[in-house]
Amino acid sequence: MRYRVKLFPEITIKSRPVRKQMVRCLRTNLRNILTPLVPDVRIADCWDALEVRIRHVIDDATRARLEAMLSRVPGVHEVLVIDVHTFVSFADTAERLVALWQAPLAGRRFRVSVKRRGQHDFTSADLERYLGGALLDASPDAKVDLAHPEFNVTLELQDQRLRLVTRRLPGLGGYPLGTQGQALALISGGYDSPVAAWRLMRRGLKTHYLFFNLGGAEHEQAVREVVHRVWQGYGASHHAHFISVPFDGVLDEIQRRVPPGLAGVVLKRMMLRAANRVAARARISALVTGDALAQVSSQSLVNLGLIDTVSERPVLRPLIADDKQTIIEDARRIGTAAHAERLPEYCGTLSKRPNTRPRPDQLDTAEADVDMNVLDAALEASSQTRVDRLLDTPAPRTRDVPVIGSREALGEAEDVTVIDIRHPDERDAAPLELPRGEPLAIPFFELGERAPQLPPNRRYALYCDQGIMSKMQALRLADQGLTNFVVYRGHHHAEH
């Protein structure tokens, strides 16, 4: 069995040295990906293509996996599935061709193209005319169109060896992975960042992954699964690393010190500061984010500019002009959408009224009060794992955080105390109204320290406007053994 791997057209127009280097890299990438599945695979250079040769019979399941792998390799434009036969005669060739093309050609325009090498007593045009006639006899409503065919029925004849293209599989396109250097993708597990990483892998960037953990062990495990899926599908020809940085301490410090309207931008700036330090250690020259212009408040043009001022490296944003639906469709294509649907986006929940046009001096003033030692501590506590080993450890058992979803249910729960974890400014602007009593006021950034001191014989229902930060804190406390924290989503405030 053979596969003809056609090069991405942009590769073919490069200068000869660049083209040779890219083809050499693509051949190595194909060998790295396919050898674990088919150990005796051979890959030959045919100048305008590479030919993958399988030297033994493989079962249908292996064939399906192999073809899926070939279709996802960056740098591949198209994969031609080729059957090899001994050339017997025009009639025998026509019989084989009709079996393959009779149904697809019904009512369509086609041409037959023969590439012939060796000594024969006929010309390529002779064979093309004969085979075209046979196909017309088999599909009378088809038409020959040499200039603009819908199907180009191709075959090769080298001496007495006949190669027939039985199927065509679309490739991923782009440039071979590793030909454009390395990048560090800031990955969250939502829709955007995995798609951004995938798009630049398709353009030849070897991509490593940096995760800022705000949601505990379960959040990290979910992101590990996303990263492993993207790498296994599109980047398995290269080793890559996954760096996890516990960022809850940084988030607590930001919520404690920074005005709510600036908290989201300051958090992104802290992430870029950390990313630059990680990239510097690994000699990585660029960062990748899933930002799309105006999608959320921190992605306004003003805020993106202010975020970038703290970066020593270019920040690549392949999704910058994309609609959300386009991003979601790509997430479905690469198999990460199902994960994104289950993961909350923590960064967008920091403040209710974010500032989309802050002044640089406002940010400087806000960050002046932030203890930058928390960033040092987060990086010191970071961990690094090779991506191919991300799933070696078993996933933690999934926990569902109990939710009290109405004031009525809260009123019936006599053993529950509500804790309002919103920023003091948000609490003052919209005080929480309960069916009885008053909530405890413990801001998000203080709860981790104060929770162990609360009486253990009660349940505590955490409240915030969207419920996401409450769930995040409940999971973090559960990781510490405090399992008596639930989420309250009553959404009733007192009138001012």
Automatic annotation (TrEMBL):
Pathway info: Cofactor biosynthesis; thiamine diphosphate biosynthesis
Catalysed reactions, semicolon-separated: [ThiS sulfur-carrier protein]-C-terminal Gly-Gly-AMP + S-sulfanyl-L-cysteinyl-[cysteine desulfurase] + AH2 = [ThiS sulfur-carrier protein]-C-terminal-Gly-aminoethanethioate + L-cysteinyl-[cysteine desulfurase] + A + AMP + 2 H(+); [ThiI sulfur-carrier protein]-S-sulfanyl-L-cysteine + a uridine in tRNA + 2 reduced [2Fe-2S]-[ferredoxin] + ATP + H(+) = [ThiI sulfur-carrier protein]-L-cysteine + a 4-thiouridine in tRNA + 2 oxidized [2Fe-2S]-[ferredoxin] + AMP + diphosphate
Biological process, per Gene Ontology: thiamine biosynthetic process; thiamine diphosphate biosynthetic process; thiazole biosynthetic process; tRNA 4-thiouridine biosynthesis
Active site residues according to the UniProt entry: 464 (cysteine persulfide intermediate)
Subcellular location(s) of the protein: Cytoplasm
GO molecular function: ATP binding; CCA tRNA nucleotidyltransferase activity; tRNA binding; tRNA-uracil-4 sulfurtransferase activity
Primary localisation category: cytoplasm
Domain Rhodanese: 412-496
Residue intervals of the THUMP domain: 64-168
Superkingdom of the source species: Bacteria
The entry's keywords: ATP-binding, Cytoplasm, Disulfide bond, Nucleotide-binding, Redox-active center, RNA-binding, Thiamine biosynthesis, Transferase, tRNA-binding
UniProt EC number: 2.8.1.4
CDD domains associated with the record: RHOD, THUMP_ThiI
InterPro entries, A to Z: Rhodanese-like_dom, Rhodanese-like_dom_sf, Rossmann-like_a/b/a_fold, ThiI_AANH, ThiI_N, THII_Thiazole_biosynth_dom, THUMP_dom, THUMP_ThiI
Protein residues bound to ATP: 186-187, 268, 290, 299
Gene Ontology CC terms: cytosol
Family: Belongs to the ThiI family.
Function noted in UniProt: Catalyzes the ATP-dependent transfer of a sulfur to tRNA to produce 4-thiouridine in position 8 of tRNAs, which functions as a near-UV photosensor. Also catalyzes the transfer of sulfur to the sulfur carrier protein ThiS, forming ThiS-thiocarboxylate. This is a step in the synthesis of thiazole, in the thiamine biosynthesis pathway. The sulfur is donated as persulfide by IscS.
Designated name of the protein: tRNA sulfurtransferase
Organism: Chromohalobacter marismortui
